[in-house]
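Entry 14. Ran structure prediction on the chain below.
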Amino acid sequence: MCFFAAALDTKPIICYFWTDMSVQHGANKKDQKRKAFLEAARKIFSEKGFQAANVTDIVSEVKSGQGTFYYHFKDKQAIFDELMIGFVDKLLTALAENQARSAGRLALANRELAIENAQRIAAVYMDNMDLATLFFRESRYVGGTAMQRIEQLYTIIFSQIEAGLAEGQALGLVRADLDPRISARCFAGAAECVIQQELRADGPRDLAHIAAQIVDFQSLGVLAPAPREAHAENHASGS
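Output, structure tokens:
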């Protein structure tokens, strides 16, 4: 406690400054312990998988007691869900940044912008490889709150792609007969498959190359320019 007293016009002014350092220190220790459990759970789940891992494994990794674990988390499911929510929130942040940086520009009509957007999403997976692997491998085990966040993620992904395709159709850049809803899921599924394979690959990963290949496949397909033009003409004529 800090005390300061002064007098002005014979009327005392007393100011009290109180800083309870012990409370703040206790809160910091609790935060540190919670983070330690989350880091340990991240490691244990990555090594053993959700089903095989247990609270004892996590507690042993932290060198703490089970009572302390249950003070912070209801059970194994709760800490797993919190890890998944944290990872999904990183993806949601990247999607929001893509939306903000696009600033009304259509990524379909701007290859550089589309590659930047794809690279930003891919970076979240590659920078959090253990969580990304858990996300793909173990997400069927997530609980209610985490599942809601995952559903929100895919809703945003699909809606952003659908909106871009629909706008592309309006501008004459995308085939008029294309179904944006189905195509959005094809686009997202193909990109997700690429990311999953890259997570398993050995050696360094060139995110710029990965992003460019995803974007070019989605916008140009696999046909070379001349065959692609011929295919488009045949498609238009119905032959």
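The chain has two domains: 28-73, 77-222. Will compare against last week's run tomorrow.
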